[in-house]
Amino acid sequence: MKIINLGEWHKVCYILLQPKKGEEGMDRIIEKKKWPLKKIIWFSLGGSFVIFVLANIIFADRSTKLNVRSERISIEEVVQDYFQDYISITGTVDPIRTVYLDAMEGGRVEDIILEEGTMVEKGDIILKLSNTNLHLDILNREANLAEQMNNLRNTRIMMEQRKLDLKEQILELDYLIQQQRKTYLNNESLFEKNFISREDYDDSRDHYEYLINRNELLIESQKQDSLFRKVQIEQLEDSVQRMQDNLGIVRNKLEHLNVKAPISGELASVNAEIGQAISTGTRLGQINDLTSFKIIADIDEHYISRIKKNLLGEFEFANKTYKLKVTKIYTVVRNGRFSVDMVFTEDIPSNMRIGQTFRVKLELGDPKEAILIPKGGFYQTTGGQWIFVVNEAGDTAVKRNIRLGSMNPKYYEVLEGLEPGEKVIISSYDNFGNVDKLILKK
């Protein structure tokens, strides 16, 4: 059947409207003709076809599609449940405290008493050193101390002798004053009676006053000499005390040639050989305090702002859960990671060994109700910004923008874009390319 186009239709209408021959100029009533049913049907079909084509042009699905087999992808349901904000980290067992053995005095290694791996008690001698120069230094200091103590002794003797001499002088002068006083008083009486001359009287008086002044001067000299000797002795005593203290320190250095255990524990290492020359400050080994343990864990720097002291953690060992608490944070980041120390808050495993590793579940916050989707490979491609959502029939999956929040080793927290009950593809999107819709084939 030939379809009449718009130009032909105009032409037909023009022919039909022309007056018949012999009727020009005459007025007559033209009877309106009805369209045949067949023509109406054909025009309706043509219009429907045009509308269909236009609708396909305007509303056609231009999204890119990809056929995917359902068994090659992972589809999970979006759920609403309590979200526990935690991370899973690897922790290594360390002793609660490590004490290092450093040489407090240099010397030559004479003997190694205890080997590494031995359990030691505080004060046990681990190794012995020798130092000839230190022994000579002690002998010289002892000689200087003896000389200084001898000077102090001589000064004390001289002071006592000087004190006795002054007492003797004062005693003798007191006697002379008494004798001269008698003479002076006697001459005074005789002078008043004119039995002696005035010159004799003045001489006796002057001599008496001289002796008195001399006595006062001698007493003052005795006081000053006593003060001087006292200061001198105090200085000598201080000097002797300092020399004794210094000698004690040097003797302690001699004692440090015996390297002893500062705490009880396990002698983890001994870094010395017999005959080796050791300088002051050289590390000779370490002792581990095994009264308790701690867990040292490395954490990705992404979490450094969320890790705080007293955060709780736990791990499974021998079918039992053990609780931990963060006590120290090492904020220095190396190779994208930082470290924390965690100690046990309750029981400690009895058969734990240093260097053993555990998977620790470290809580970052309290549980909260949230919309969750399981973790999957899709995140590496989308960065959590979009995901493929499967329709109810399960035959297609369409890309949809979403917004994720916190995550733990099992789930992502969904903030926007998904509702509980919907199904999403969580496996890797590496083979999907940049398509908008997946056609799921069984």
In short:
The chain has 442 residues and is of the alpha+beta class. Helix content is 36%, strand content 33%.
Question: Tags for this entry?
Answer:
single chain; 442 residues; alpha+beta; conserved putative lor/sdh protein from methanococcus maripaludis s2 fold; OB fold (Dihydrolipoamide Acetyltransferase, E2P); 4 domains; six-stranded mixed sheet; 5 helices; elongated; disordered N terminus
Q: Poorly predicted ranges (pLDDT <50, ≥5 residues)?
A: 1-6, 21-27
Question: How much of the residues is beta strand, in percent?
Answer: 25-35%
CATH topology type of the largest domain: OB fold (Dihydrolipoamide Acetyltransferase, E2P)
Structural class: alpha+beta
Count of individual domains: 4
CATH architecture of the largest domain: Beta Barrel
- How big is the Rg? 57 Å
Compute the number of helices: 5
CATH class of the largest domain equals: Mainly Beta
**Total beta strand runs:** 22
Major pleated sheet: 6 strands, mixed
Shape: elongated
Secondary-structure blueprint of this entry?
Elements: H1 6-17, H2 37-59, E1 65-69, E2 75-77, E3 79-83, E4 86-102, E5 107-112, E6 119-120, E7 125-130, H3 132-192, H4 198-256, E8 258-260, E9 265-270, E10 277-278, E11 283-300, E12 312-317, E13 320-334, E14 337-344, E15 357-363, E16 368-374, H5 378-382, E17 386-390, E18 396-401, E19 403-407, E20 411-416, E21 423-425, E22 437-441
Parallel strand pairs: 1-22
Antiparallel strand pairs: 2-21, 3-16, 4-11, 4-15, 5-7, 5-10, 6-9, 7-8, 9-11, 11-14, 12-13, 12-15, 13-14, 16-20, 17-18, 17-21, 18-22, 19-20
